[in-house]
Write a structure and sequence with these properties.
Layout lengths: L1 H8 L3 H4 L13 H4 L5 H7 L8 E5 L17 H4 L6 E5 L9 H16 L1 H8 L9
Parallel strand pairs: 1-2
Length: 133
């Protein structure tokens, strides 16, 4: 107990959190903490995702090699997640929330989870869906 009180009094952060040194040189804001070599991202990437998930990935410039594609911020290789229920590549930049294909895919995923797969599939095969084009 005395060691803890002494550590707090001295603001000895390394004693209070031995893992703190792993984060030296990394910021805590969104941009810096999303670097692939950030300890948090590295640790999280080794954890299984325990929920169903989908990916919608922007492609700023169409290419036949997805490994070279990007939405202008995130490369495909970082955006792609093995095990996703679905993955859609949309011709758009990173922050585009107005792309019609993106909106339709979000609606499809929402229906899928709210109504179930059969209902979502029926609605997606209608005349206004991307699947019919």
């Amino acid at each position: 107990m005395v060691d803890l009180v002494t550590a707090v009094a001295r603001l000895d952060v390394a004693h209070l959190n031995p893992n703190r040194g792993r984060f030296d040189g990394f910021g805590v804001d969104g941009i810096k903490s999303m670097q692939p070599d950030h300890p948090l991202i590295s640790d999280l990437s080794r954890q299984p995702i325990r929920a169903k998930y989908h990916t919608i990935i922007g492609e700023l410039f169409e290419t036949s090699d997805l490994t070279k594609s990007s939405d202008g911020v995130v490369p495909y290789e970082s955006a792609h997640l093995d095990g996703a229920e679905s993955e859609m590549i949309v011709p758009s930049w990173h922050g585009d929330v107005t792309n019609r294909r993106t909106i339709n895919e979000i609606r499809r995923i929402a229906r899928l989870h709210v109504l179930g797969k059969a209902a979502a599939d029926r609605r997606d095969s209608g005349p206004d869906s991307d699947a019919s084009r």
